[in-house]
């Protein structure tokens, strides 16, 4: 009966989606090493979130990996123009 239960859980979509992730195998974390301040940036676009002022439901975030400095801005639309404007105004 225990083997039948294991097989059922392996094939059950709901069971796999809601599995306890604490039993997942761990992986060694790697440090991101930047040689100097503002040499290496990461950017992420997050959302959609609940619509805020001026219909801004996305967030763009830039992080300097050396200093951990963060810049963020809400966006109404994700376009190349908006990303470039954020980069030029807040990152450079």
TrEMBL record:
InterPro entries: Gypsy_RT_Integrase-like, RNaseH-like_sf, RNaseH_sf. It comes from the Eukaryota. GO terms for molecular function: nucleic acid binding. This is Gypsy retrotransposon integrase-like protein. It comes from Trifolium medium. The lineage of its organism: Eukaryota, Viridiplantae, Streptophyta, Embryophyta, Tracheophyta.
């Amino acid at each position: 009966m225990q083997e039948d239960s294991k097989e059922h859980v392996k094939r059950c979509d709901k069971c796999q989606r809601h599995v306890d992730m604490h039993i997942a195998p761990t992986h060694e974390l790697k440090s991101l090493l930047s040689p100097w301040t503002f040499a290496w940036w990461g950017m992420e676009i997050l959302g959609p979130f609940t619509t805020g002022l001026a219909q801004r439901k996305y967030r763009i975030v830039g992080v300097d990996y050396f200093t951990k400095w963060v810049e963020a801005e809400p966006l109404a639309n994700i376009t190349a123009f908006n990303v470039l404007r954020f980069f030029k105004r807040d990152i450079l």
